Amino acid sequence: MKRVTGIGGIFFRSKDPKALGAWYKTHLGIDVQPWGGAAFDWKGPDNPDGGGTTAWSLFPADSKQFAPSAAPFMVNYRVADLHELLAALRSEGVHVEEKVDESEYGKFGWVMDPEGNKIELWEPPDGQ
Questions:
Q1: Buried (b) or exposed (e) across 58-87, using 16+ Cβ within 10 A?
Q2: Which of 30, 72, 82, 91 falls 20 to 30 Å from 112 in CA-CA distance?
Q3: Alpha helices in 15-99 (DSSP H)
Q4: pTM, whole model, 2 decimals?
């Protein structure tokens, strides 16, 4: 079974997301959008036509999105089959959150690593 196939996104907390986003836009050229992040499109062996995207986004410092982790960041990993992977991780004793979100953006699940960092797992929709 394929597990992680790539990085789907990098998310981190900020004391002032608008100001920090402006800094990244000005100094590093990241095209920060009004929603607070950017999307980097790319091609790869699983999507030779270029349907892959890696998200980069800032969250307010008090965001609960990363809870129960105290870390100021969260990495989103692309996976091939979210439900199969979550079942395998549960059987291996990994802390897996019960909640799974499914939408037009794909399937999302969350696990905690042994150091308390929350990890988002994302099965993109077909073609991405």
A1: bbeeebeebeebeeeebbbbbbeebeebbe
A2: 30
A3: 17-28, 82-91
A4: 0.87
